[in-house]
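Hi R.,

Here's the chain you asked about this morning:
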Amino acid sequence: MSSEISFVVPKEMAGTRLDKALGLAFPEYSRSYFENLIDEGRVLVSGQKAKVSRKIQEGEEIRISHPPVKECEIVPQDIPLSILYEDEDLLIVDKPKGLTVHPAAGHPDGTLVNAVMAHCKGRLSGINGVLRPGIVHRIDKDTSGALIVCKNDKAHRFIAEQLKGHHITRKYCGIVHGNPGEDEFTITGNIGRNPKDRKKMAIVKEGGKEAVTHCRVLERFGKYSYCEFTLETGRTHQIRVHMASKGHPLVGDPLYGPSKPAFGIEGQVLHARTIGFIHPSTGNYVEFEAPLPSYFEMLLEKLRKMS
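And here is the predicted structure, written out as tokens:
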């Protein structure tokens, strides 16, 4: 986000507290962050300073002035990487389950970015700022699999345009609760921040961003199913939210699944298996596959023996 930004209050936000509305509009920031900005007079509603509790109305202009960004040095760390492919423009990393992609509050280091900084010796694209060098897209901490890391800004812009246009092949594998009624089906539904729980995303009737997930059942095990998901869009928690909305949450999902995880697995059983795109230098389509992690394979074998 730039240092200053403004937006006009849409109909669905009318009557909402100012701090809550800002949190919904910009979910990458916490509500407490906006509360501080409001207290500092950095948020104007129709040109006037406002209080946190101010109820905003449709058509009002909200202008936000962010404080100067503090530079944060990322320390390269010798963290083992599984690299599926690498050249002068990019590398394809097979991210393990449990590894956070980039530094954030609560995760200042020990991330994928720290690892690729060490591997690439700092030679990464800078478009996404000092905290996310080289990162053009993300997958959740507990989701494993293929991730593109860009080494220069040219490659970053080229890949980002393909992501924006939904031209990148992204196929995931996951194990879900239950037995879907169809072998193949498509789930649609705009995804936005859950208004009742900021940690969650949800299918929302108004606002949100378009999300489309194609699901194919690969194997059925009675109470569980092994599925392949092909993304048309790449929204936060998309597969997790869409499958939970159909009554088939991912096994181990701490946010959208049962409170007691099946098989004692912590974190969703979801793997980004295939990624394909037009290479920024050659202009050729390339595709890479990340093998299923061992814990995933072991769970599949266990389910096969049980069924």
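One quick note: The longest strand covers residues 169-177.

Cheers,
M.
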